[in-house]
Amino acid sequence: MPPPLLHLRENQIRNLIGPDEAYQAVREAFAALARSEVLQPPVIGFDLTDRRGEVHLKGAYLEGAPHFSFKVATGFYDNPDRGLPTGSGLVLVFDAWTGFPAALLQDNGYLTEMRTAAAGTLACQTLARDDARVLGLIGAGAGARYQLRAMAHARELERVVIWSRSEERVALFIEEMEAEFAFGIERAASPEAVVSAAGIVITATPSREPLIPVDALHAGLHLTCVGSDQPGKQELDAAAFRRIDRVYVDHLEQAASQGELQHALVAGVIGRDEIAGTLGEVLVGLKKGRRDPDEITLCDLTGTGAQDSAIASLCVELAREQGVGAALGDE
User: DSSP readout, 30-52?
Assistant: First the structure.
C-alpha cells in the first residue's frame, strides 16, 4: 500500500512557511540551478483571454532532495471585482525515492507569493547598493505587498514610494501597509517618479507594455522585475537595456522567452552573451555582482520550478516534523 497523501491547507502552510523559511528555500534553489543540480522542464502556460486569466505549470527536482513537485498557479485579474484574490493554485509533491504522491499543498498561491518575494529580496540584497534605503514599487496588488514585507524583513527601509494605474488600489495598499510598518509610504504620480525617488525598484505587475522608460534610470539604481513571467509581458522599455550596466537573470532560457529580456533580445539591444550571469551564479561565487556604487543593475526574475520545488519540499518536511496536516480524506 502506498503511504497516505498528506493534505495541508493554506492556514497551516502560512504557519509553517514565513520569510526566513522562504528565503532559505529560494537561496537553495538558486544555488542548485547555478551548479546544474536541478532537473527542470520548460514552463507550461496559457492565457484564458476571454476570462482575463493566466495559468502556469512549473515543476522541478533538486538533486538529493526528498521530493520533486509540480505547481499550478493562476492569475485571474477580474477576481478582485468578485471579492476574490487575483492569484490561486496548489502544489502536488512527490516522494523522490518511490515516485508516489506525498502531499497536496492547498496553498491558494501563498507559496508562489512567498517564493517570489524571497527571490525579489534576495536579488535586491545581493545586487543593490548597501546604503539604498528607499524602495520603489510599481504595482499595488498582492505581489507588491509580499515584496514589501519581505524587503522590510531583510533591510531597514526609510520610506516606500509606490505607483499603480489604480489610485484606489494604491490608497488601500498605503492604508494596509502603514498599519504594519513605521516608515512612510507615498503615492507617486508616475512610474518615472517612483524610479527617480528610489535606490531600489521592484516591479510587480502583469503589464504587457513598458511602464519604465529609459530616461528614468539613474546612477546607482537597482531594478528587480518580477511581473514578466510569460511571453508578451513587459514592464521595462527594451531600450533601457542600453543604459543598464549589469543584467542578471534567474534562468537564462526562461528570461529570454518570458522575462524582460525577451523584448531586449528581439530589439537587438542586448545579446545573450552580454548577460552578466544568473543570480545563483553570483550567490555561489561563479560570477561577480555589482562592482561600482554608480552602476545600474537589473535582475530579471521569471520564477522557476526549482524555487517552487524547494519551498514545497521544505513545507512538507516541516509539517511532518511538527505533526501538521492530515491524510487526505481523513479530515
Answer: HHHHHTT-EE-PPPEEEEEGGGT
The angle that helices 110-127 and 142-154 make with each other, rounded to 10 degrees, is 50
Give the active site residue among 58, 71, 287, 288: 71
Each of the 331 residues of the chain gets a pLDDT tens digit; together they read 778 899 999 999 999 999 999 999 999 999 999 999 999 999 998 999 999 999 999 999 999 999 999 999 998 989 988 989 888 999 999 999 999 999 999 999 999 999 999 999 999 999 999 999 999 999 999 999 999 999 999 999 999 999 999 999 999 999 999 999 999 999 999 999 999 999 999 999 999 999 999 999 999 999 999 999 889 999 999 999 999 999 999 999 999 999 999 999 999 999 999 999 999 999 999 999 999 999 999 999 999 999 999 999 999 999 999 999 988 866 5
Q: Is 125 domain-assigned?
A: yes
Q: In sequence order, which residues have a C-beta less than 8 Å from that of residue 323 and are 6 or more positions away?
A: none
Q: Are 169 and 77 in contact (CB under 8 A)?
A: no
Same domain assignment for residues 172 and 223: yes
User: 136 and 198 in contact (C-beta within 8 Å)?
Assistant: yes
Distance (Å, rounded) from C-alpha 208 to C-alpha 138?
Answer: 14
Structural domain for 35, as ranges: 6-111+306-327
172-178 contacts, C-beta under 8 A, 24 or more apart: 172/140, 173/140, 173/144, 173/145, 176/145, 177/145, 177/148
58 is catalytic: no
Q: Residue 68 is placed in which grid cell?
A: 520533486
Indicate if 59 and 103 belong to the same structural domain. Answer: yes
User: Among the residues of 81-141, which ranges form H helices?
Assistant: 110-127
Distance CA 286, CA 294 (A): 22
Whether 107 and 195 share a structural domain:
no
**CA torsion sign, 58 to 59 to 62 to 67?**
positive
